[in-house]
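Cross-posted from the bioinformatics board.
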Amino acid sequence: MDSRLLTSAVTLRVNGTVHRLTLDNRSTLLDTLREDLDLTGAKKGCDHGQCGSCTVLVDGRRVNCCLLLTVACDGSEITTVEGLSDGWSLHPVQEAFLARDAFQCGYCTPGQVCSAVGALREMAEGRPSAVTVGTEPPSGAAEIRERMSGNLCRCAAYPNIVRAVGDAAERAAEWWERTP
Amino acid sequence: MDILRTPTDLAQRGHGGVGESASRPDGVLKVTGEFAYASDLWARDMLWGHTLRSPHAHAEIVSVDTTEALSVPGVHAVLTHADLPAATHYGLEIPDQPVLAGDVVRYHGEPVALVAADHPETARRAAARIRVEYAELPLVTDESTATAPGAPVLHPNRSDHYADRVPHPNVVHHQPVRRGDLAAAKARAEVVVTGEYELGMQDQAPLGPESGLAVPAEDGGVDLYVATQWLHVDREQLAPVLGLPRELVRLTLSGVGGAFGAREDLSMQAHACLLALRTGRPVKMVYSRDESFVGHVHRHPARLRYEHGATRDGRLVYVRGRIVLDGGAYASSSPAVVGNAASLGLGPYVCDTVDIEALALYTNNPPCGAMRGFGAVQACFAYESQMDRLAAELGMDPVSLRQLNAMSQGATMPTGQPVDAPAPVAELLRLVRDRPLPPPRQWETAVGTGTGFDLRALPGGLSNTTRGEGVVRGVGYAVGIKNVGFSEGYDDYSTARVRLEVVNGEPVVLVHTAMAEVGQGGVTVQAQIARTELGVAKVVLHPADTRVGSAGSTSASRQTYMTGGAVRNTCLLVREEVLRLGRERLGDTHPGWRGDGLWLRDGAVVTAGGEVLADLAQVLGDDVIDLEREFRHRPTEPLDPENGQGFGHVQYSFCAHRAVVEVDAELGLVKVVELAAAQDVGRAMNPQAVVGQIHGGSVQGLGLAVMEEIVVADGARVRNPSFTDYLIPTILDTPTMPVDVLELADEHAPYGLRGIGEAPTLSSTPAVVAAIRAATGLALRRVPVRPEHLTGT
């Protein structure tokens, strides 16, 4: 078979850098990030969208990037855990995970952190979750637990993750105002 | 050779000493995604290894044909049993496990052949083209099939240490623990309760799959970067298999994505090294999630029968127990699991007459070995279930019955070993019992929902279609006992190298050990100890590797005790050397140098009264102090093979739980509302990390109670190797977990500390099940408790 039929040219903007790649159509975004772009922060915990360790932000929304074909991301803006810091200081979510000791082995942490950044943005935008009650902006531990429930942590640092995400909520809002 | 993302030094300046909640030296790397896990390794020209595994649990290998696989473009090597260069078997204690199966496969998923190729998918596809012809054999799956007349003997011609004292060749190890006059005690007992219990097969399920990179070296050796729990015992097993002297097999710890026992045995280590040595190229292997579920050992499933005799007023008169553990196809750490189950099978109680026997079977089920709390977890579910049954039989409060029989310092174990350190069992129970209970039926008292009803708080959350009419609450208690460190006469030690020098005017301590950091925070504690003992702000942690002496295993709750002890002792020797040099060089400058009790603080030598004599730059100049020393805990002795008597354990660790559950019995839904824990830690070396360990162990016990089980069926095959089908607790399943920490020093241990990692995993499971029993009135003899056990459907 003509190998051109198996590949596609894709343009991705990852953590602010534009990459023009020619890829096997079957490549997942996770493999592209890890194997082609040398960004190994996102982890392959299951490769089936079950554990959340591969969570990154695509156009500002959380995705399990092991389930996403890279060709479907052509033209997208992708933020991985490596791109959350502004180059000078850690993202408030990263700071909060450190302060609250919200991890042990840390393998799920890049996914947890990206997921928390996405979740806090969804809450700040007033987007309801499955458990949002009433019309007030979603907040509180029940919302955090629901929104973080796609990210497994086998060390079970969950109580500290809930606290870290709660701590980060206010500071994250300020952060978005000063970062594009 | 270009190799990327190998571990680097972890440097930290001034972040707290012993007893403070110092931050993790690897913390920033972990939250920024820069921490290099074993699955992230990369080398120029590296190949990818893949393992072909058996689809059968017991079969003869009739033939293997690798021709077609070798012809796949991109394939560089295919290896089978026939290609093994030296020793063909390995094992932690008994070398009964083939590196690649020879004539026979003994479990579903056993490695049969290896492929190295230039792409992981090429390797996988080539492996599928290896033609293996199997002839299936009869299965041994439980005690009755293992010991039936004419049962297939899975390991004929055994020559191991246990072979001549087991009742059947399909029994790996058998340990009775007998004390007291059973006949007399039976005559005295006024109340007797008996029960049979069963635990399913739990998996450690670390999120980081088995991974590593083997790099062939010019000297004919190999460098292996790997996620493991014990570098040196990996090397002990690898060198004979590779046919290399030990010094040519060099291991470096790569980032470990959780362990919980799953990395005690070899997985991909020998395979990657063999492929690398065969091809002359670096070889990386990373297991997929489904492969990980068959590629490491599991927690032993168990069947337990107990009989408790007591007086009317609730004092234990005798306890009999029989604990049958399924070890699966290979021995792994089964002997130690048996020893723990037998010696700790009474629980943290006092009873003069005990007759407990534990044994592990060889079967064709997946091999079982280490998982957090091994042996003690299985026993605790049964003896704590029995204590509740006894309390019910006597009409006593279950906590009061436990407190009445609780051991304390000075008690005697069923092994005859005196308990010569604090054992605050009754106090731990009091702490969890005296906590206020969380308010019931919180869905009815929801605030701010506008409806006065909060579905989120119901068992099952939003998927509960009722308004809580059928929900009942229950409260349950349990307490457990775990040994710390390697037991039964094992020469258990750790090694630390500590180097002190002054760099650009600043004193710097380098700590180098082979301790596997698997998430427990051992590197944090090492840095804390160095700061405390040497009074230096800047500490650099060298990557763990085999260039320094063994640290022993990151298991048995032992590393803070053992490697912490090694770092402390070596630091103290470095300090002595600093003081010797100071006296020699500066002794005439101040009378304080002649005094006792000099120590190091803020980069200076100070007197006992705190007066500064000299800073370290003055004392050391350009000299470097670099010492490496071993540390041992006090010796233990083997348990007697007939009666289990002996000073078998180094230290004991205790934790108690209270679980509060709400159960929708009609829908079979359980919500653990709160799981309170109390644990004696001797000394909280890092209070924040201590609480994290207690949370983590408690949740893994909760998982065993209500959801976690490897399903082995359809010819002893693993049927649920995924996170869709093997459920582990999520953030939604995790209740609030208040923790009480006691710090009663153990005078035998460094800083008085007690190993903490495993004890919370023991009592969490029976506490949750006791709470479900209290809510439903059901007997619930088996974990995990499934919805159908509650609904009777």
